[in-house]
Amino acid sequence: MQISRIVLLSIVSALCGSFSFAQKGCQKPFNKWDEAYALKILTNSAWSKQMALGSAFSAADRLGRVEGTDKGMEIGSNTSLSGNTRGLDRGTGVAGEKEIIHSYTVRLFSAMPIREAFVRLFQIRNNYDQMPESQRKQLDVEFEKARTMDVSRNIVVTVSLESNDRELNMEVDRQLHQATLGSLKQDAYLIADKQRVALEDYRPPSGDGAGAKLLFPRTVGGHPVVGPTTKELAFEFFVPGVKHKIYVQWKVKDLLCQDQLIL
User: Fold this and answer.
1) Using one digit for the tens of pLDDT, what is the confidence trace for 181-219?
2) CA 106, CA 101: separation in Å to the nearest integer?
3) Distance of CA 143 to the CA centre of its chain
4) In 3D, which of 81, 49, 41, 44 has the Cα closest to residue 236?
């Protein structure tokens, strides 16, 4: 229980405050979600995208290169993985080839449903519904902080990787921990239609499981980045060290709940 509590507190400390979006009945209350629904919100929903890159290398190819340094590869399709990508296995093909699968998950962490999904998974996996009422009330205080953290000034995008190449997993994790706002300034952009918005702040991966957090301003020059006429929002990111290119897009109309933007 102590370890899980630390994870929850990491979510709270990532961005803490008092701003929240009202859901206005667009979906059932998050405390009624089952595990499958919460995972769907986190992996394949209006606020989350998964991009998979797979390539086959023969044993001979592997002798001449270090695993996990597939520099220059571009992830070019919005391939959604139906399940959780943790624990991907290497599959062996013909002639000793093995397929390497890299799955990047990009989430609009500033959107309320994403944070609620993290909270709900914590509840389910720690038997929250079976806890004594006094213990639930104590945790509810932390849950509310996680749900209502202040995102009024920033659109927060998170990036995480799951790969069946352990060396690549470790290298990307190391690079994201060492990265700084200065080192990523030219490698990360939020794009609202044709307007490219520069990165404003960066927070490396913490214990919350969400991945690296990239913060972009909600307004530029006094004008909202995503306005009434904005049709598409995109995120472009060159992963440091390996230089995989992540490019995902969201239709703004899909981020609306009864005409209110959930972002």
Assistant:
1) 999 999 999 999 989 999 999 999 988 889 999 999 999
2) 16
3) 19
4) 49
